[in-house]
Every structure is written in structure tokens, then in C-alpha cells.
């Protein structure tokens, strides 16, 4: 790989008009190991873009073999082709609200605790796929902890990270009768990592109130900050506002990981100072999800409204 491709690309030089506005960080390099010089510059960049934008595109390059991408998206297509009664067997549990199969008029959604229960996706592919995204989550989270000088808490924090695989199918608007997919919201978890097929739809709200369309590619993942990360960082990083709008005449599939924090989060005293006085009471991630469900059609429940001091 030529040397210039080893650098973090920001903004992505080859990007299209819409994509040019999305910060793209290069996670494809093999030497991106804790302590290396590429790690240290990536670490700064990750936190800078998360603070400035609340999201970024992670380019994984050859770390996502096209075959793995195709197996996953092919498997997801087959999974959604099962009869509704079968899909309904993927159930939600009381502790982790919104998990299981939850179809709406606009889309079908499955949130699965354990990726191996997706019978139709080859088990091995699903495992290596989830491992790949989980590694990206670990890298990004470790970089965040190191950047704010609280790496001593990284290990114990990760013990309580729970990752759910999300699978989404949006029918083409001509069939469903609507171009509206998931409405405007922020994610309630710590970090979301999404990967999608070639059909556009994900729109990210910028701090200037513009909407940018994510232009997908098989090797690019989008990393979004959720409400739990906003609380953890005491507002240094704000959760990313996004929605899905369908404009293409094809079925859209989106996959990814929602990383939740399964323990009460307290803002670390190291992250409270004059510039960032304590902003949040202790936070329970799954209670926040439940509160959003109860809030329902009133819109997006913010962490400020849920547990702001
Ligand atoms: O379909 C997508 O890519 C995004 C879905 C989403 O934002 C969500 O499920 O929270
Ligand atoms: Fe979302």
C-alpha cells in the first residue's frame, strides 16, 4: 500500500460532494496497534471528529473481504424472507427492550443479542463479521479512554459492554408507499457501528442543521456516538442525530452493532472540570431505552431530559 494511504484521510480526498462532508478515518492499516505512531494520531483524530461531528466513517479496506460482505448481506436477505411467524420467534426480552423482531409499516428490524442465533447466516461468517465490528468498537473505545487520560478504566468498562447485532430491511418506497424510514433520532446506546448495502438512505444531521447522505461502500462503516457516550464524556461528545429516507427503487439492508453499557454509568471525576461541570446523574442504559419507548411518538428523548442535572 502506498505510504499516503496509511495516513488518516480527512476529508476523504476522492469523496463525492455529499460524502466529502463526512469525516473518513482509515482503519484499514495493519499497524494500527495500541502505542504505535499511527495509533496515536488516529486516537487524536477519532476524538476530534467525535467532538466536532458525533460520527465518522471508518474505512476498513481489505479487512472486510468482499466475500464476507456478500455472505452477510445475502444471509440477511434470506433471513428476512422467512415467514413472519418464524421471524416473530426472535423475541425481545424484558431486560433489553426493543430486542427481537419488531416490524413497522416502514421497515423490518431485528435486534439480536447473540449473532449466532441468525440461523440462515452461515455461523462462521456471522462470527467473523461480528468479531470484525467488535474489534472496531474496541479500538475506538480504547482510543476515547486513552485520549481523555482515563485508560485505567477501559478494561472494567468493557466488561459491561454488551453488543447487539441489528438487521434492518427497508422495502423500496414504491412498494411500502413511503420514503420515510427510521425517523429523526439519536441512538440510546454507547456506540453504534453500521454497515449497509449499496442502497443509500442513512442521513446524518450536521451541527449546522444540514442533512448529509451516507454514501456506502462494502468496506466502509459508519460510527455514531449514542446517548450513553454523551453521558460518559460529560458532553464532550454529543450523540449524533440521524434518520433514514428512502429515495432509491431497491430494497435497502443495513447491519451493524449497537454497543450498550450494562452497568450504571457515573461521569468520571476526571471528566468534570470548569469547562465541563457535572452534567449528568448516574445513568442506566436500558432504563434510557425503556424511557424512550414510553416517550414514543413525542419524539427523541435526549439524555439531558432523561438524566441531566
Ligand atoms: O438503517 C440504518 O442504517 C439506520 C438505522 C438506525 O438509525 C437505528 O436503527 O437506530
Ligand atoms: Fe439510529
From TrEMBL:
UniProt GO MF annotations: dioxygenase activity; metal ion binding
Domain Fe2OG dioxygenase, residue spans: 160-263
Pfam families per UniProt: 2OG-FeII_Oxy (PF03171), DIOX_N (PF14226)
The keyword Metal-binding is annotated on this UniProt entry: yes
The entry's keywords: Dioxygenase, Iron, Metal-binding, Oxidoreductase
Family, as annotated: Belongs to the iron/ascorbate-dependent oxidoreductase family.
Protein name: Putative 2-oxoglutarate-dependent dioxygenase AOP1.2
Organism: Morella rubra (Chinese bayberry)
